[in-house]
Amino acid sequence: MSFSIAHLGPTGTYTETAALLLANWLNKKQETLPLLCPYPSIAQTLQAVAQGKANLAVVPVENSIEGSVTMTLDTLWQLDNLRIQQAIDLPIVHAFLSHSKTLSTIQTVYSHPQALAQCQGWLEKHLPQVQLIPTRSTTEALQSLGDDETVGAISSQRAAELYNLPVIACPINDYPDNCTRFWILGLNESPGGSHTSLAFSVRANIPGALVQPLQIFADRDINLSRIESRPTKRSLGDYLFFMDLEGDANHETLQTALQLLKAHTETLKIFGSYAVFPAKSMA
User: Fold this and answer.
1) How many separate domains does the chain show?
2) Which residues pair with 241 in a beta bridge?
3) Maximum separation of any 2 CA atoms in the chain, in Å
4) 148-197, pLDDT tens digit by residue?
5) I need a surface site. Which of 71, 114, 178, 229 has the fewest CB within 10 A?
6) Cα(12)–Cα(140) distance, rounded to whole angstroms?
7) How far apart are CA 99 and CA 230, in angstroms?
8) 256-280 pLDDT, tens per residue?
9) DSSP code string of 120-132
10) What is the mean pLDDT of residues 114-125?
11) Domain coverage including residue 46
12) pLDDT at 1
């Protein structure tokens, strides 16, 4: 069976770009080019690996402007058998695509919610009256263009080239240093690395319920690079917490901290320790 990588599709998404980098990198190491398998949602991408339909999944987890990708976090919490193998930091450059000759005719703009948010300033300045319609991916937004000169979409320049669509403006993201981190997940144990990701729920919503777990890491000089709360979906005000730590779970100090953490949590899930690669280092 060929080695396969699941990713958010269709062809032309930023996630596919990250998957292509991974595929080429693996090809150099293993002398076999993995097969890319697009899926219509992040949840289905992760489920494909959990169910053995693909070897690896590439999913966005955090953007430098808009923060965490909640669908990735929520789905990963629900799946118990996936482990992070590594991470890729990919620069994101958004383009505005349309068949219109001028912005003044645009009435509707389609794109993924993250892309719309990352270009909010540009949209408010140049297209303040347009209707913004979210799609499941930046490439899916292109299906709404047709030949309609009143419609625009936010996607990548690569997608514009793949689908032969005109670029009206680029870059349009509000901040030049726009970057998204992608996790590569599989069924194998994590290889170890500079970062460790985990999530936990607490037994009760009482004073100090979160302070005690955090103090464990502070007492051992373990830095938290990210912390995110998400509803457990059991009741209002009931949360679970996602954390990224700087350190390897195989090292004694972090191992001790994680053992102590179990005593202060209801459910603890360790997603793995892994290395983070800039996209240019994998080209």
Assistant:
1) 3
2) 200, 229
3) 62
4) 999 999 999 999 999 999 999 999 999 999 999 999 999 999 999 999 99
5) 229
6) 9
7) 40
8) 999 999 988 999 999 999 999 999 9
9) HHHHHHH-TTPEE
10) 96
11) 4-92+178-190
12) 54
- 211 and 142 in one domain? no
CA 7 to CA 46: how far, in whole Å?
Answer: 8
Structure tokens at 130: 């347009």
Residue 113 located in a structural domain: yes
Q: Is residue 281 in a domain?
A: no
Q: How far is it, in rounded angstroms, from Cα 88 to Cα 59?
A: 10
Tell me, what amino acid is at 211?
V
pLDDT band at 146 (very low <50, low <70, confident <90, very high): confident
The whole-number average pLDDT for the span 240-245 is 96
**Per residue in 17-48, pLDDT tens?**
999 999 999 998 877 789 999 999 999 999 99
Pair of tokens at residue 59 = 């999913």
Spatial distance between the Cα atoms of 231 and 2, rounded to a whole number of angstroms: 38
Sequence-ordered list of residues with C-beta below 8 angstroms from that of 123, at least 6 positions apart, any chain: 109, 116, 130, 132
